Amino acid sequence: MSNILSFMRRKPASTAGDPSIASFLNGFSIEVMPRTAEKIEDFRAILPQSTRVYIAHIDGTPIEDMVATAARLTDQGFTAMPHFPARIIADKATLAEWISRYADIGVNQGLLIAGGVTEPRGDFHCSMDLLETGLFDAAGFDRLHVGGHPEGNKDIDPDGSDRNVMDALRWKQKFSDRTDAKMAVATQFCFEAQPVIEWADRLQAEGIDLPIHIGVAGPAKLQTLIKFSLACGVGASLRVLQRRAADLTKLVLPFTPDEFLADLARHKATHPGFGVESVHLFPLGGIKKTAEYTDLHGQPAAHVANA
Questions:
Q1: Which regions of the chain are under pLDDT 70?
Q2: Is 134 helix (H, G, I), strand (E, B) or coil?
Q3: Which of 129, 239, 264, 268 is 20 to 30 A away from residue 64, measured at CA?
């Protein structure tokens, strides 16, 4: 059925099948929440096998729901990468329990972030606190991603600078250098290529060579993207959406990341050392809609019967 639906989809005239975008999207990852994952009957019908699927741990989500989602994804042949939000984890014993429960179902990867709450609920303040426990290494977690903010983060740097953000990335680079963990920086979603290019170049100039997995918002209504962007503190590239919103002829049309991806892909093609290694998709308009978008650009989903 999924193959028939793929055949019936109409491709946008301008960029569908764009080889540069197809190449850039190769090996993409995507994000889900347990409550949205419940709506997907079988992920094998919409995503390429072995896709890395981040599982967002929103404040209030029971760990049982997180582990159940990770188990389901793992059983279906995907690479589950649950979030570990430092500020909602009570203590080292709780962190050890979470890690153990994930390890028991074959999960050995995690995204370590401060989390979406302002004040810590327990002993941990940031991802560095989690890394320093040594618990991930002891449990055999061999890939640890950390958060990145190409346009800054006012929660971390209230003065509008990026001093604290950069200091944290330098610390994480040193951690990566002295451990065996495979690390990468998974970023907030952006809408404009130039700020990303400048940020990636600056990291390299600072000696930070952790691979970048650039956050990209999947297709969604413009109003939806603006709402999430304001809530998540997206910086200067929000102007791309604001300009589009000012054009009433485009206001009702769904927004896609074609231009953003094409610009980054072109830069990568002419600058092979560019630090962006992969694309991480935020399915703000729905995971099925985002999966269909990747399908249109040469990342076909496997049919369940062939999985």
A1: 1-18, 153-154, 157, 160, 226-253, 298-307
A2: coil
A3: 129
- Kindly report the pTM of this predicted structure: 0.85
Is 187 within the bounds of a domain?
Answer: yes
Domain contains 266: yes
At 214, phi and psi to the nearest 5?
Answer: -75, 130
User: What range does the domain containing 86 cover?
Assistant: 2-219+256-298
CATH of the domain at 35: 3.20.20.220
Domain count, the chain: 1
Determine, yes or no, domain membership for 230.
no
Name, in order, each residue with C-beta under 8 angstroms of 46's C-beta and a sequence gap of 6 or more. 2, 40, 287, 288, 291, 292, 301
DSSP class of residue 16 equals: T
Q: Exposure string (b/e) for 54-72, b if CB count within 10 Å is 16 or more? A: bbbbeeebeeebbbebbbb
Domain membership flag for residue 236: no
Instruction: Please name the residue that has the structure tokens 């049919």.
Output: 303
Place of tokens 């193959």: 3
